[in-house]
Specification:
Structural class: alpha+beta
Largest sheet: 10 strands, antiparallel
Low-confidence stretches: none
Distance between the termini: 27 Å
Strand content: 35-45%
InterPro entries: DUF4334, GXWXG_dom
Protein name: DUF4334 domain-containing protein
Helix content: 10-25%
Shape: globular
Radius of gyration: 14 Å
Pfam families: DUF4334, GXWXG
């Protein structure tokens, strides 16, 4: 089974496990900062993480990486059907993207300005990435469990 097929299967699964996602993560290509530039729509894996409910509540759409030091981590669907960066939603604020070591690899990592939280990225392909949120998750979400999500480049 290809990496893409494994990703699709886990994205559509009713309750994928952290172990399954970690196995996929290990096989993905490292994302570089320049790979992340652009606008992305996102979703998460159905693991019941508290971040899921919070992002659903604010109508999270994705992330905008306009430049390494100009990242909108919380882009939401507006009432008129469009999308907009919402710095107030979910403590989103602003962010930047850097190359940071995670699990022994240097990969593109979004660093929130307002929280001790990091989103690490690896590539399924040029238009799809898997993200793992880690950091001080207990203080933000009430759990120290990692949050697994995905982004697809908007055309």
């Amino acid at each position: 089974m290809s990496t893409r097929e494994r990703f699709d299967e886990l994205r559509d699964a009713e309750s994928p496990t952290a172990s399954q996602l970690d196995e996929l993560w290990a096989d993905l290509q490292v994302a570089k900062v320049e790979d992340m530039l652009g606008h992305w729509a996102g979703g998460d894996f159905a693991m019941g993480h508290p971040a899921s409910a919070l992002l659903e509540k604010v109508k999270w759409h994705g992330k905008w990486f306009d430049a390494p030091l100009d990242v909108s981590p919380i882009v939401v669907r507006s009432d008129d059907g469009g999308t907009e960066a919402n710095a107030a939603a979910a403590g989103g604020g602003a962010a930047s993207v850097w190359s940071i070591e995670f699990r022994g690899e240097s990969t593109a990592t979004m660093v929130y300005d307002a929280m001790g939280v990091f989103d690490h990225f690896k590539k399924v392909d040029d238009d799809t990435v898997v993200g793992i949120m880690n950091g001080k998750l207990e203080s933000v979400f009430g759990t120290d469990e990692l949050y697994y999500f995905w982004l697809e480049r908007e055309k």
